[in-house]
Amino acid sequence: MERSDRRLNIALGIGLAGLSVVPWYRIESGFFSFDWFGNFPNGSNEAPALLQIFAHGRWTLAVIALIFAVGLLARAFKVSRPRSNLLIAAGAAGIVFLVLQGLAVGFTGWTWTITEALFGPLADGQPSMGAGAGLVALSFVLMFSFGLAERGVLRGDAFVVASIALLVFLVSIFVFYPVGSMFIGAFQSFDGSFDPSGFVRNIQDPSIWSLDCLVGGNRCGVAWRTLLLAILSAFGSTLLGLCFALVATRTRFPFKKGLRLLTILPIITPPFVIGLALILLFGRAGVVTHQLSNLFGIEPGRWLYGLTGIWIAQVLSFTPISFLVLIGVVEGVSPSMEEASQTLRADRWRTFWKVSLPLMKPGLANAFLIGFIESMADFGNPLVLGGSHGVLSTEIFFAVVGSQNDPSRAAVLAIILLFFTLSAFLAQRLWLAGKSFATVTGKGDSGAHIALPRSLSIGVHAIVIPWILFTLVIYGMILFGGFVRTWGLDNTLTFEHYQRAFSFSFENGAIAWTGVAWNSFWTTIKIALISAPLTAAVGLLTAYLIVRQRFVGRNVFEFALMMSFAIPGTVIGISYIMAFNLPPLEMTGTALILIACFVFRNMPVGVRGGVAAMSQLDKSLDEASLTLRATSFRTIRKVILPLLRPAIVAALVYSFVRAITSISAVIFLVSAEYNMATSYIVGLVENGEYGVAVAYSSLLIVVMIVIITCFQLLVGERRLRRENRVATAFIPSAAPQEKAAS
């Protein structure tokens, strides 16, 4: 009972602070700048909610204060059914009315005609919600959760109930609300009024759906070009990833460790840098093009600038991800099943084709899905190599920031892109549904995997070895390109690109960062270091709830969270712009919108890694801790987290790398104050400053390797104490032996 009162006091204290201590509305200069102290508490934008009601006439906030008073009234009761009912009602009503009030009142007054008809016009509107509104919303969510816990939901575990409620609340705000805003934006005009003409015009646009290429025309519509490119890229990266996995696990290839290291490099490389390296090799002034022109008189062409060049760059970029997905699947095929096939007189080729390959279907489906979605979302490579052959991601970008300035067109293109990715996501789940591919059981499974058929072994080596050499040349160009004065014209070695980007000097005993890239570099590192731990924490907490808890709607909860993985970054970017550019939540141009984008875009990877790792931990560990009167929060902190160090490292590394290398969503969300490295490098490429762009990208790769190593050292390794006990008869002479063996 004391614990229930204590946590309720905390929730009510948070709400009281939001109503009476901090500004209710958003501070333009930023809450943590504390510039608002000068006008606090009387300023119309700086006043807390209670003063907004009485001093500035914003009576719509009075209902929120009255609902909160119901929660205060519930505190006067002892833990009982009436108290829990009051908390549940106050929390639910508070959240609903807070959302409705924020959406219904805009800058100039009512945003809905129905509310204006019911209550009459408002004398004044309201800015976007700020710190006070956020604290009160958190208080309502906690009241609702604690009320459910006092009713005995999930065995009365308040931490678990509150975690589920907070995650649902946050995912609704940062995933479903933006996507919903994007759908609504497709049917709105510039003034926000309902206007379906823009949607009808754009959805029927021949440049999107044209099949002219099938009847001898120049090109297909952008939707079909994007779909074809995604299928080809997914197929190519999956095939190459499988070849790499087979070479690494089923052959005597002498450089397996180097092969694994080589596959990591494209993951920590900014996505458009591969395209930039291809230009340095095969562009009109590229090394290979120049040599072919000199030796054979071949006229430099523009074959690289189009779908061919984009496809090569995407396969190079996504093959390592497919390899990492497939290598565990290839190793997980049971040797005993392959031996059983050979015992039945099947040769190695038939065994591989009929036994091994079918058991790899889940991994192949996942690798294809990842390649398909990554290709759909890819923005950097199509921007650098696309030329006049745009894809959906680049067309969305130009519809927002180009001369068109057509938000409705951007929303329609984003909806088409989302339809393609979700269709692939659902098709993969349906294809694997109801099928069993289990090969690992509780029984011992000794033996070694059979060697590949000779013809297949020759084939995969013939694919892998040239691709390895090609990748090495690509990365050689990336490193070398930063030390060349003007690529293709003046190949004199120089440090001027690094000096221009990262020069510094000492002035008045302090370091002056004089290089042009420092501002975006430090901004990128800070935002990545903030978002990575948050992503890992949210992902692992979600994994704990999915694996360890049983509650109504758990499967829907898991599917909804994983949906954000199937939403391309380009769609996330355009939906965030449409959702968070106006009240009730205005975050564009701030660091917060970038952090929120990274956390909820990359969270599914932390969830899947946590689910896989936590499934290996016996539930008896949790039960023993709870039996000793520990809370769920203490059990997670003291028992589970120390055993999840590999999953923590994986989530930290992935989210950190993605925060630095992401471009498809970031390109819409950056501002002059918060400009990310990838956006800055794209600007350099567009201005033809290839040397500085390559130098910046090379330094980013080195920095990521260093920080990833630091993450590994900081978190440490999981240490499991294993004991081998010798079974002996319990006789006096055997007791010391047993003790020593243990």
Structure description:
The protein is mostly helical. Helix content is 67%, strand content 2%. It contains 33 helices and four strands. The strands form two sheets. Strands 1-2 form a two-stranded antiparallel sheet. Strands 3-4 form a two-stranded antiparallel ribbon. A hairpin with a 3-residue loop joins strand 1 (484-486) and strand 2 (490-493).
Average residue-wise pLDDT = 83
Based on CA atoms alone, the radius of gyration comes out at 29 Å
The low-confidence runs, each spanning 5 or more residues with pLDDT under 50, are: 437-445, 720-742
**Morphology call:** globular
Distance between the termini: 44 Å
> In which range does the helix fraction lie?
55-70%
What is the spatial order of strands in the main beta sheet? 1-2
Brief descriptors of the model:
mainly alpha; 742 residues; 67% helix; single chain; two-stranded antiparallel sheet; two-stranded antiparallel ribbon; Iron ABC transporter permease; disordered C terminus; 33 helices
